[in-house]
Amino acid sequence: MGAIKRREFVVGLMGLPFCAGEVAVGQGIASRGVKPQPRGKPSGIPFHAHFVDVAREAGLVKPVLYGEQEKKEYILETVGCGCAFIDYDNDGWMDLFLLTGTRFGHTPAAASNRLYRNNRDGTFTDVTEKAGLHWSGWASGVCTGDFNNDGFEDLLITYWGGFILYRNNGDGTFSDVTAASGLIPDPTSWYSGCTFLDQNRDGHLDLFLTSYVDFDLKRVPRPGEGSHCNWKGIPVNCGPRGLPTVAN
Prior knowledge:
The chain has two helices and twelve strands; from the N terminus they run αββββαββββββββ. It has helices spanning about 5-15, 130; strands at about 85, 95-100, 115-120, 125, 140-145, 155-160, 160-170, 175, 190-195, 205-210, 230, 235. The longest helix has 8 residues, at about 5-15.
C-alpha cells in the first residue's frame, strides 16, 4: 500500500470517509432543539485494536509541565498543550514535536518544547538544542506547513502572550522569523490554535490564528479577593485567587 496522503490522514482523524474526487461532509453540530437519536445496533465485528504506552522505551522521557503538580489556581494551568508530527529533515520518517507549559513564579530547567528525531527503529532522539527550538513559556497549539515553498516543513507555535514562527533551514535547524515575516503578536492575547491554509489558492500558505479568553494577570482577582464566584448565576466555592478551584 502506498503512503497515505496528508489529506487522507487528516480526514481519517476526523472520522470521515475519504473518496478521491469527492467532498466528505461532516455531520456538524446539532442545535438544542434536536432530539438525540437512539444508538444503533452493534455491528458484531470484533475490535482488535490495542494500544500500549511505549513513550519511555521510545526515549520520550522529558516531562510536559503545566502549572504546579499539587494545585491549579488559574485556568491557564489546566488546559495543557498540543503536539505535532513533522518530518522536519525530509528523511521519510515522522519526527515528533512536543509542546510544554511552565509554572508561575519560576521556570523549571526542563520546561521547554522538545523536538524528537525519529531513529527509524522505534526510538527518538532529543534534538531540541541542536535545532534551535529551546523555548519556555505557556505553549498552547502548534501547526506545520511549508510557508516559503522551499520543500521543508516550518513550525508555528501559539502561546499565552504571543506566537513564534520558525523557518526550517533545511539543515536540521530552525530560525525565529516572526518579526521578519511581519507578524506582530499581541502580548495580552492567549493564542490557542493555528493552521496553515492556502485561502486564495495562489500556491502560498496563509496563516489563521485563534485566541481564547482575555486572560490578563493584572486584572485577575488577587489571592483572597472575592468570597464567591458565579457559575451560570450560581455561587460556587473559590480558590485563593478568587477563581473556581480546579481539582487535579
